[in-house]
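Feature request, filed as a ticket because there's no other form

It would be nice if the structure record came with a short human-readable summary line next to the tokens. Right now we just get the raw output. Example of a typical job, pasted below so the devs can see what we mean:
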Amino acid sequence: MRPCPTSVVAAFAELVGTFWLVFGGTGSAVLAAVVLTPLHVPVGIGFAGVALAFGLTVLNMAYALGHICGAHFNPAVTIGLWAGKRFPAREILPYVIAQVIGAILASGVLYAIVAGHPGFALQPNGLAANGFGAHSPGGYWLRSAIITEVVLTAGFLIVILGSTDARAPRGFGPLAIGLALTLIHLVSIPVTNTSVNPARSTGPAVFVGGWALGQLWLFWLAPIVGALLAGFGYRMFAGEVIDANVAAATADV
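Raw output as currently delivered:
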């Protein structure tokens, strides 16, 4: 992913891209995952549709905004790219702040939409907030949630670092990254509702409050740990190539 000078434009691009990711992904989960016709026939998109929605949002915004800011849209990605020597430390904080603001704005807009439905209740619905234990879609507890988020975030960063390596085919980075995020959601929606992105988890939690805020720590800690493991690990095995070709390797996105 392309490293950019910290600027209002780059930060705003991260805000917009993260907004689109969170609104498109969680919006699909809240508005379209389970839909019944007047005859009570289910026509919703289900888990598979939600997974595809998250992947598509990253894919199209990576092509749309990647040349401006690198298209991270995820604090764990930003930190993992720093660990892999793809991103300067001084730019981490502005990117993360922009990403979190974008996610909160997206959840606010989604909340404004769903609150207009007469049958909507915030606590049972949760705006697709991430959770474990009683708040896991499949009833998975803390250990399962930690393992899932660490492993899948690490895998996500490996795909990002590998698909934007100088040796990788040019122009396919966003496609590989979008498909990877789709796969991640197919695996982990039943476990945690899928985070791998602290900003994505923060947006809904701000509005849901209560349990969502109480469990938010895991969805910051586990993805960042996974991202650091992948970033340092990839650098260890391919560091010389990456360090010598930073500009070329990150130009795809």
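Something like this underneath would help us a lot:
The longest helix spans residues 216-244.
The two ends are 5 Å apart (CA to CA).
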